[in-house]
């Protein structure tokens, strides 16, 4: 059976003969700490590729190596056919980076943040002045062009950081946790901007620990934990392979969940049961049938009556829980 990393590269190879990103055995060590442990990746032109995992999984470290700002300990890496350690400026000339933390110049206006950033690439003002207006419109910030960055909302700042990353018309855009800390409305606006970039043919690579974000945006993704790839594929394929169609979440009470789970394992036709500190997850094809079984067992006195019960479809967070034994936000 092929490993997760082999699956990731084989799937990509079948999609396209060329790769915007190609990594083999990518490693990053800090003394005795192994942040990234032998990752293989292939990212094809025009796709949105995701690195999904909890904080500390190695996502941001991988992104820093892809961006050419952190040297790898071992392995091979090429970005658009160039090794970033051999010719970092050539890579960065065609690369856009959206860091995890906003790093705008707070004292400058939205427009000036774009103009000055573009000068770092040696771009002339004759190009940057109309380009800045185009990017402000794309980011829905035209009316904030002369507003200082420190007066913008969190969602506006995030959109401005993305607009700034596009000033050199990059072929590849790296986004590290692009919507962390944003409210739902701001997240959806940002998703729309990223969809538009993808439609233009920009290759996107993003890290996230939001399962819905990965499902919405990513064509393919890898699930990362402990600096290693645990699984790879499309969101739908990963859910089909590792989870079930539906999930029943039941809360019996923190001191009763384990005992109830034991009874449910023995007396229900369930694919899998996971016990979390606050709830029990039952995986099956029909969550409503599982709920009927729980109700019948409670009425027979075999388990205590559940405090709450929720049915839903299986998600990428279930995939991660099944693979690693913990949730994405642990």
Automatic annotation (TrEMBL):
Q: Which UniProt keywords apply?
A: ATP-binding, Nucleotide-binding
Q: Which GO terms describe its molecular function?
A: ATP binding
Q: Which PROSITE patterns match?
A: ABC_TRANSPORTER_1 (PS00211), ABC_TRANSPORTER_2 (PS50893)
Record carries keyword Nucleotide-binding: yes
- Fetch the InterPro entries from UniProt: AAA+_ATPase, ABC_transporter-like_ATP-bd, ABC_transporter-like_CS, P-loop_NTPase
Asked whether the keyword ATP-binding is assigned, the reply is yes
Give the domain of life: Bacteria
Identify the residues that the record assigns to the ABC transporter domain, covering every copy. 21-251
Pfam families in the record, alphabetically?
Answer: ABC_tran
- Which segment of the chain is annotated as a signal peptide? none
Q: Which PANTHER family match?
A: LINEARMYCIN RESISTANCE ATP-BINDING PROTEIN LNRL
User: What is the designated name of this protein?
Assistant: ABC transporter ATP-binding protein
Origin species, per record, is Micrococcus lylae
């Amino acid at each position: 059976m092929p490993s997760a990393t082999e699956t990731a590269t084989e799937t990509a190879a079948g999609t396209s003969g060329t790769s915007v990103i190609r990594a083999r055995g990518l490693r990053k060590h800090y003394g005795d700490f192994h942040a990234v442990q032998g990752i293989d990746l292939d990212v094809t032109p025009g796709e949105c590729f995701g690195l999904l995992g909890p904080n500390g999984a190695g996502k941001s470290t991988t992104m820093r190596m892809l961006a050419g700002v952190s040297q790898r300990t071992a392995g091979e890496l090429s970005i658009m056919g160039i090794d970033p350690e051999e010719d970092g400026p050539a890579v960065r000339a065609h690369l856009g980076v959206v860091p995890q933390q906003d790093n705008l110049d707070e004292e400058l206006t939205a427009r000036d943040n774009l103009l000055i950033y573009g000068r770092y690439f040696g771009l002339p003002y004759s190009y940057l002045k109309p380009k800045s207006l185009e990017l402000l419109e794309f980011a829905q910030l035209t009316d904030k062009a002369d507003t200082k960055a420190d007066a913008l909302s969190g969602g506006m700042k995030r959109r401005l950081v993305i607009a700034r990353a596009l000033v050199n018309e990059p072929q590849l855009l790296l986004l590290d946790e692009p919507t962390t800390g944003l409210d739902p409305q701001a997240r959806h606006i940002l998703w729309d901007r990223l969809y538009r970039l993808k439609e233009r043919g920009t290759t996107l690579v993003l890290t996230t620990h939001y399962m819905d974000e990965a499902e919405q945006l990513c064509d393919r993704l890898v699930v990362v934990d402990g600096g290693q790839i645990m699984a790879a594929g499309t969101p739908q394929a990963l859910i089909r392979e590792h989870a079930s169609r539906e999930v029943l979440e039941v809360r019996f009470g923190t001191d009763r969940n384990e005992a109830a789970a034991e009874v449910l394992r023995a007396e229900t036709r369930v694919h899998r049961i996971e016990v979390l500190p606050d709830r029990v997850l039952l995986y099956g094809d029909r969550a409503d049938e599982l709920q009927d079984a729980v109700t019948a067992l409670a009425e027979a006195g075999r388990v205590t009556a559940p405090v709450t019960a929720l049915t839903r479809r299986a998600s990428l967070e279930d995939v991660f829980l099944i693979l690693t034994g913990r949730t994405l936000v642990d």
